[in-house]
What does this fold into?
Amino acid sequence: MAVGGGYELSVRPLSLLIGWLIAVAVVVATLWWSIRKLGRVSETGLLAGSIVAPPRPGRRPGRLPLGLLVGFGLAALGLTAAGFASGDTPSPGLTF
It folds into this structure.
């Protein structure tokens, strides 16, 4: 039992529906992410067992755009600063 009271399970149809929809969205996104490169592999390459797509011109493989990296870095710094500024130790901004 936690300090100051206990926990109570609250299951509602709307929360179950939202959880199911989020889970389906994550599954679809994961499938898309994992097979998106197979569309660029030739049919003969797939039949031969190759899953390596030819490199796309103009972009280095395996690199995220610099703007995306900078944006996520700034968001992380902002959440950390907001968490410390609030003075609330269990702030969600500090856990991410």
Q: What stands out?
A: The chain is about 55% helix and 0% strand. The mean pLDDT is 79. The CA atoms of residues 83 and 89 lie 8 Å apart.
